[in-house]
Known about the structure:
Order of helices and strands: EHEEHEHEHEHHEEHEEHEHHHH
Strand order of the largest sheet: 3-2-1-4-5-6-9
Mean pLDDT: 92
Strand content: 5-15%
Shape: globular
Helix content: 25-40%
Structural class: alpha/beta
Number of strands: 11
Radius of gyration: 19 Å
Low-confidence stretches: 1-10
Amino acid sequence: MTSNGAKRPTGPSGTEPPILITGASGRMGGAVLRACAEAFNVRAAMRDPARHDGPGEAVAFDMERPGTFGAALAGCRALFVMRAPQITSRKPFDALARAARNQGVRRVVIGSVRGADRAPLPHRGMEQAFEGEGFETTLLRPADFMQNFETVHRDDIKASEIRAPSGAGRSSFIDVEDIGACAAAAFADPATAGGAYALTGPEALTMGDAAQVFTDVLEKPVRHISSDPVTHVVKQIRRGRDRMTTMVMAALYTAQRFGLAESVTADVETLTGRPAGTLRDYVRRNAEIWR
């Protein structure tokens, strides 16, 4: 059931126009692709379609090459759009919105970020490119991803550490699989158009709390090591970590440090009809990643 009680499709129809999913090779976009494929025909937008190994067809698409937009969108009924990390300007999204209109797309679900409505983030430009342009738009603004523990922090956790300059601040981490489920529910429910949903996990945790979850599930000690953000960035870059990723993560941790990431909502349950998964659920499901 969707948030207004309407029954979802039980599966995709062979004649149904597809939904174009941008970012399909990434964490959030991949989760959206998998969730939507259970009910809809999907089309994965990727720089290199030959590498696609998920559901649906794959088409060439590059946010930095507007010439790829029209063909990727041709015949689509709807669009999931998200921001690639290197895109800081609104212009590519304005071009994508024009291409979507030209192809007859009216339904758009946007994977943004928590706080996009309050802070000068590039995600807000993405949202604005589609708002007020005749689209039926749903905004999904998720909290920090649990999956950062398996990408940014994987090696440190294997070494029994979580290094993050978050102090005693809390974050309501969300599993990207819940974001995918919310996107599928939004596409299924016309009543979500015009809405903005702050997607969080069910609890706000410090990094010390997260370390305790890993300690319990992995049955080995994991500790949180904090420092000031500048020192953290310098140390991570000296360790050979990617500069852009380090800066982005430091910004997220600073927001957490100052209490800007601790709010918890029930929006995942509102959209999907079930509570968001916990960090403990996520770590149990993926424990082998850190062993």
